[in-house]
What we know:
It is a single chain. By secondary structure, the protein is of the alpha/beta class. It has 11 helices and 8 strands. β5, α7 (168-182) and β6 (191-195) form a beta-alpha-beta unit. InterPro entries: AB_hydrolase_3, AB_hydrolase_fold, GDXG_lipolytic_enzyme.
Amino acid sequence: MSTHxxxxxxxxxxxxxxxxxxxxxxIGARPQxxxxxxxxxxxxxxxxxxxxxxxxxxxxxxxxxxxxxEHLTVRVYKxxxxxxxxxxxxxxxxxxxxxxxxxxxxxxxRILVERQRCVIVSVGYRLAPEHKAPAQTEDAMTAWNWSVQxxxxxxxDPSRYFTIGQSAGGNLALATAHLLIDQGRRSEIxxxxxxxxxxxxxxNVPFHHKDNHRSYHECADGPVNTADxxxxxxxxxEAREDDPSVFVxxxxxxxxxxxxxxxxxxxxxxxxxxxxxGCALREAGVPVKLxxxxxxxxxxxxxxxxxxxxxxxxxxxxxxxxxxxx
Length: 326
């Protein structure tokens, strides 16, 4: 898994793919989140509503909200024609720990269930700046515990539980694995699917990784996610820079991680987070599959931009298959 990128010698506009350029022309601008955390939350919600308005209908998927604590709701997606016990994915939405909710990635969850034949439990975790760390990982673990305890209710196969998420949600997918291992519960988790994840605080990159952690600089002003936006998110959540339960590249448990699938985008401040944690896991002996989307920005798929394969959900499905069968 090479960390090489052409970004070092070309501008962002020169690197972005023709497919993404068409998206920006259609929008009439380069989409970016700006302002403080609450400003970005509103922008994120409006953007998600626009993107979701054209989402395909999934009549074969049942959707039920479960209020599992006073402050925590999960949304359970299941195939309506389910007859056998299915894999269960605990899903975490993106949004920098400050944005997003159960609705923002609802179509993604529906399509994944329809095509993957699995159960998805999407977690409406608490958001910063109102709720500082470790509220997010606490909610992740509460939702995991509920999902495991209610396997029969979910129609889930306890031997095929995994975590999955995008961006900050990809971070929580990794963090949940770390916390389960830290608690001596490695046997409960069978895989991690981390899409464009945060894995290290940019102010606390280990010395031996610094030369290969360049994407915050190279992609500082790229589409969708920017270095300034990441700084605002991290300042808002107030996670300790040296906390391995948030910044998993620091984890001492990497050698115990389950098989992991990681997706990274070339024009994304978080690109090198995903690459470095993938390399570290592989060096620790963990089965790792990594897809690197050249010329594309953070969560490009949310905008209807095609992946090189033409089927990003298919790529994710292959990642789920990889972690459950490795």
